[in-house]
Amino acid sequence: MTAVDENRSDPAPEPVEGEAPRWARRLLTSGRATPRRSFWWAFAAFFAVSGLWALSNPLMASVDEPAHVVKAAATVRGAEDLSEDGDATGIGLVELPHLYTQLALYPNCFAFQPNQPADCQQELSGDTDAPEIVATSAINYNPLYYALVGWPVLLPDGEHTVYAMRLVSALLSSALLAFAVAVVAGTRLRTWVGLAILLCVTPTVVNLLGSVNPQSVEVTGAVLLWVSLLALLRSPDPSARTIRLLGVVVGAVFVANARGLGPMLVVVILVACILSAPLRRTVDLVTDRRTWWALGASILACALGTLWILGADSLPSGSGDVGIPLRDNIMKTLGLTSAYVEQLFVALGWLDVGAPQWVIYLFVTCAGVLVVLGWAAGTARDRCVVAIVAAGTFAMPVVIHAVQADKIGFFWQGRYVLPVAIGVLLLSAVAVSGKDHALPRWLTLNVIATVGTILVTVQTITFYVNLHRYAAGFDGGWVLAEPLSWTPVPALVLTVLYGLAWGLLVTSTTRSCITTTSQP
């Protein structure tokens, strides 16, 4: 019997052969668009998605939309707050045409009643132009967003005014997201970041994009701010510095001036991006005089947002007599964590549109795939920053409630932390994109194609679920054969168009961002 040679090494394993489906290769790699073309393709696709949602959702079928519509009309018309305590309570009174009083009552018959279809909305009646006092809970909000989306009130009034506001808001948000795609398309670390942007646009976000709500530009501005800062610090390119700096400024303007936590969110995003890159790159960027204009503009945007918050008392306040002990406060907030996580993915209507749990699980799984890839491929620095941002996402409601719940109760919604939470996806995508050369080409294409297909499917299903809730009620039949009371377009046609829009969005975004270098 021959002795075993201890010095003999086993033969190297044969490389695993694999191949992406032909349709995936043709759709995702048949020529990468330039950043300029990437912007326009992404803009068209994002607007198709958000515009269809805006036109298919019943009027005021989004949480707090009546208050934001009234605030937008008051901002553009120059209506002043007539209340005596609006600064303290956040509830203002403005004089507007009677139309807005009627519109504000639209959701009263179906909000928080999942089995009540939206066909209960009353018809407009009387003299809709007659002046009347209308209340809004958004009286202390920063006027920037409302001034940009509220100008349709200068046209002849009617229900179409709200639809026009929605479409203007969708245009603005789509432009911010398309800007982010264009920035990513011009970076070296891009392959997985396009997919991360798509994962950031959950049904919760689409619902915001198709509504009159300042959080639409807060979230989309945050996407732009994240990717612009990460491009500057993680993939430096002097030739693309100006467009990235412009992305930082635009993102900071909208995040800092959308809602009460805006300036703080800008600081959190900035710190996370700085921590994710070698300190030398931040020093080089700050000491370069060619970047000072962007630094100054961003600081000014945050300063103006902070001044408005302090001057108008935009943060929630209360009488201070709720009396919730701190320990009970923290324990209850922690107990609501699962609900907050679900709301990051699916929070529709007046939080009364229940999506199937498996839809949420698929969203979480798709996001988890990207996070796990980033965790496995990233450096120790990458993993540390992702962990910090994830911890901050869970800790923020606990901290905010610890400060304010004893005054105003538990008011937090999962979507409030979206500008921070999306950083987990974007940081993970940058981490795995940095090791893209080490991944087999077919594996990258298969993962992106699979996740993209799942996204198109679950987004389309969620769209139909939302239509079903308002057409038939939660327990109603699922075949929506009857015409919808608020739109002449059949539900099936709307759903098919929405699915096609998402297919265009996934294809155009991934094609703009995926690298074309062949790999083993």
Automatic annotation (TrEMBL):
Keywords: Membrane, Transmembrane, Transmembrane helix. Coiled coil: none annotated. The chain crosses the membrane at residues 39-56, 163-185, 192-210, 245-272, 292-312, 357-377, 384-404, 416-433, 445-465, 485-505. It holds the Pfam family DUF2142. Signal peptide: none annotated. It comes from the Bacteria. This is DUF2142 domain-containing protein.
